[in-house]
Each structure stands twice: as C-alpha cells, then as structure tokens.
Amino acid sequence: MVPYLTTALTGPLLELEKRLLDAQPMIEHWFRQQWKDQSAPFYTSVDIRNAGFKLAPVDTNLFPGGFNNLNPAFMSLSIHAAMGAVEKICPYAQRLLLIPESHTRNTFYLQNVAVLAHILRQTGLIVRIGTLIPEITEPTTLELPAGGRLTLEPLVRKGNRVGLEGFDPCAVLLNNDLSAGVPDILKGIEQNIMPPLHAGWATRRKSRHFAAYQHVADEFAQLIGIDPWLIDPYFDQCGKIDFQARQGEDCLAEKVGDMLAKIRVKYDEYGIDQPPFVIVKADAGTYGMGIMTVKSPDDVRELNRKQRNKMAVGKESDENLNSPGMHFVPLAFDDTCVMPDRSANPDASPNRFYAYGVIARLAMLAASIELDETLNEAA
Q1: Residue 310: predicted pLDDT
Q2: Structural domains in the chain, sorted by start
C-alpha cells in the first residue's frame, strides 16, 4: 500500500519524488523480479526521514508495534494481507499463538496487540496470546483504555512444542523482538515461528541491515539514474562501546568526524546550507533507546552523566517511548492508494507519497537479504 496521509505536505513535490513517479513502471517491474528471489518478511515497519532534499530509512522493524494506528476503514485490506502472509509461510495453520512483548504498562502497545489479534482472527485463525512474563502464571485479563480486553496466558512447553494449557498451536507469531535474548522455551521447537528467531535483536544488527540496504539502494539508484545518497543514509559502526565507563569514546568521536566530513561534501555538492549531524544509536534494539544527535566529535566526548546513562538504557528497563512530554498522533490513510496515478498531477493524493512506499519496500528487501545472511549464524 502506498500511503497518502490526511496530514500530507502541501509544498511542491521534490525532484526526487518526481523521478520516482516517472520511473514507476520500471520500479514496479524491478520489485517483482526481486521478490522472485527473496522471501518477504512476515511483517515490517520502516521509519523514514524526509530532509527536504533526501529521503531514506533510519530504522526497519521486523516486529512492528503500530497496528492500533491503522485506519479501521481499511481493515479489510489488512485482513487480506495477513491472510496472504500466513498462507505463504504456514498454509495449513488453524491455531496461532501470538507472543507479544513483556511490558504491560505500555497501553499503546497493548492496543496494538489487540488489533493484531483481531486482524488474525478475521482471517479464520483461532488466536490466543501467550506471554513470557514469569509473574503471569494463569490467564490474566487486562482492560484496554480504548475499550475491550486482552487476555494473556502463560506459555507451556511440551517436548518440542510450545503452546498454552489446552491449546496446541500450528504456528507461532512473534511480536516480541527478543532484545533480551531468545528464551529457552522457544529454542528448538518444531512449530513454524514467524518471524524466525534470528530476526530478533539477539542476532540482528543494524549495521548489517544498513550494509544490505546500501547494496539494494546502489542497484536501485543505478536502475532509475539517481545519486544513491539521495535514498541511502551514510552509516558506520564502532564496535563495543561503554558510555558509563567511557570506553570506545575515541573510536566513536573519530567515526563521527569522518562521517560529518562526508556529509559536508554532499551538502556542498547539492548546495545545502544546513549544519550536518550524525545520529548515534545502539547496533541492536529498538523503542528509541540509546539514541543521540551530535554535530561535532566533541559532542561525544563531552557527555554529562545524565546523557551517558540515557545512552546505556536498554528496552527492558522502565523507560520507553511513551515518556512524559512525548505526543503521539495516529496518521490515518486518506485513501488506499494501492498504485500511483501517472495520468494525474504529481501532487494528486495517490501520488504524493508514492516515494515513501518505494523507500519502505527497499528497506524490506534489504531486511530479507539480511535474514538470509544471518540464517546460518542462527543455525
């Protein structure tokens, strides 16, 4: 689906977006060829940043947590997509076990789980929700702020199968990114797990993903005749860093300096009169943890204690994205916009955000390549 948001930008379509629209037939044919060789992840969400002169992914999540933000008017499309995804990976599934994250205080996330379970049930599956929370030893029902209830049940392992008391599922769907590692109860089970265990952050690394994306972006840019920098963020990695012990600080500062210099070259090339910046984030994990923006190598060396503690925080701690002062607004689709309308004005609603869908699919393709590369490591 190509999104057109009700809060769409009103400015003129950027040159990059025009180029993508003009090349739409070539782009769609190229994607069809790519998916003949690669299996798409079960589900994916992509964070995209539009700088006004550049459009690129900054995060690709293989365990998306925003199903509560989908437009209810297009629920039938979500159900159809889920049906196709399940049938492709596990065509004979009847009973499905959904395993979410372990934080129950994040009501936004719980609403996401409820909507995801509803979508899956509408495909004809029997869906129950199992939890890895050790304190939950019997079925526990949670009230949701938007209405409705969510029942979590303790997982039960019998031989090489995992399920619930009185419930033996055909397949397991993870909505838990395994940031805390792969739990023993899920290791070596014979049921199909979607996404696979090696898609979790216990194995996955952002540096590997962006390396795969770099190759995808280079090939795509050559296809349509653009500078790959316009759709690809520069990235580098620095190995193990301990902010609290101030270990790896020099390596990070050097990498930041080198990257800022590379960005300045591109800014000069395109006449961009803005100060370059670098985003520093952990190589594994999600939920906006351990992220900071720096504009100078000195920014890395001059972190105060509070900033160092922030960079050391992981997802399993008490902090999360829903911190005081954060504000979240669902942006619903204004129209389904399955494909752009090349006969219409570039600013027409089906066209305005075609570029976002293209970049998201490039990131999903990179994630597919990344998962193939890590499969042997997880074996």
Answers
A1: 57
A2: 15-62+204-378 (no CATH), 67-194 (3.40.50.11280)
